[in-house]
Amino acid sequence: MNRTLLGTVAGAALIAGAAGYFIGSNNDLPQPANVPSPAAATAATPDSIPMDAARITAAEIGLYKVGDGGFGSQVIAQGAIEAPPSGHAVLTAGADGRVTRISKQIGDAVARGEMIATIESRDAASISGSLRAAQARAAQAKANYAREQRLYDAKVTARADLEAARADYQAAAAQVASASGEAAAAGVSGRFVSVRSPIAGRITAAPAVLGSYVTAADELFRIADPAVVQAEVSVPVRDGGRIKPGAAAVIEADGNEVNARVRSITPSADAESRTMTVVLTPTSGGSTLTPGEYVRARITARGGGAGVAVPSEAVQSVGGRDVVFVRTAKGFAIRPIEVGERTSEAAQILNGVKPGETVAGKQAFVLKAELEKGSGEED
Questions:
Q1: pLDDT at 279 exceeding the cut of 90
Q2: 143 CB neighbour count, 10 Å cutoff
Q3: For the whole model, what pTM was predicted?
């Protein structure tokens, strides 16, 4: 039994000695360099995204220049481009008759006062006949007045006869003026009515059909001046009181930005939407806006909190932190930010972005997707 115990102790000692030998040998070998764990490698993200102007345009990424105003100093509004009263016209026939000539069609440019259609009308013939009759009576009255003047100068007739002849002539001349005004207002020349444009612009609708019979009130053409437009946008009542006529604004349409001014704001709210309408007049680049086009506007308002404001879609979450994509010469830099308040339209940036910098706004998620795609390829 003692021999067995001694054998067991000896075997254990040999095993312990061998283990010590191997441990000592491993300590003497060169150790591998520190290698980051897979989780740490995944957490590393690039600090920029290369992207040229062509790719930015193709991806429809909207660029937003950060202004000096704090959060709440800009009101974001939605609306549409409209033609003001001076920027569009509806042309009617002006008289019953048949369309005998059409010289313009949809899309054609027209000058102010240019004739674009002709209507043959019995009304026009009647107006022309009345004008000619008035002119004939006026000519006869003028001749009678001249004769009475000669007789009065020769002391042949009394002064009362001269004054009666003068009164007849003046009445006839007044009839000529009235008939001429009626003919001019109706665009009458002989038996034809000329349809002329009261503004310069382009034809946007042309329901007139050559040879068709029309009435005086029938619409023949619509004309709009593309250079004379305005934006009509809606704002909540709480923001309407902070907007004043003359305030600066920016109209965003199809990736473009057009500077504008507040022309007016409705004094009362719409009963259904509980919003007020703000009318914006472009100060430059108005010709790039199309009536009927939906737009977004940024309107400078009184008041505002700390930090700066950016569109809400400009803020993206990358690696568990809020960032914006700041435009650089080669693409976009990924900038961590501190976000304050948020609304559905805008976000308050307390730190991370300065006024004057340009960030990706609309479609900013495309850059986030590009970033994640690049990280996936590296993995």
A1: yes
A2: 12
A3: 0.50
DSSP H or E segment with residue 252: strand 248-253
Angstrom distances, CA of residue 279 to CA of 150, 170, 269, 273: 67, 50, 14, 17
Q: What is the pLDDT of residue 44?
A: 52
State pLDDT tens for residues 238-260.
Answer: 888 888 899 889 898 877 888 99
Residue-wise pLDDT for 174-200, tens only, equals 999 998 888 887 788 888 888 999 999
- Assign residue 160 a region: left if phi > 0, alpha if psi is -120 to 50, beta otherwise? alpha
Q: What pLDDT is stored for residue 253 in this prediction?
A: 84
Distance between CA 95 and CA 187 in Å, rounded?
9
Spatial separation of the C-alpha atoms in residues 164 and 366, rounded to whole Å: 89
The more confident residue out of 91 and 307 is 91
Domains of the chain, first to last: 43-73+305-379 (2.40.420.20), 77-84+229-302 (2.40.30.170), 89-121+191-225 (2.40.50.100), 123-187 (1.10.287)
Report the DSSP beta bridge partners of residue 332: 49, 327
- State the DSSP H helix or E strand holding residue 125, giving kind and residue range, or none if neither: helix 122-153
Helix axes 159-186, 122-153, angle to 10 degrees: 160
Answer yes or no: are the C-beta atoms of 179 and 134 closer than 8 Å. yes
Q: CB 11: neighbour CB atoms within 10 A?
A: 10
Query: Could you give the CA distance from residue 379 to residue 376 in angstroms, rounded to a whole number?
Result: 5
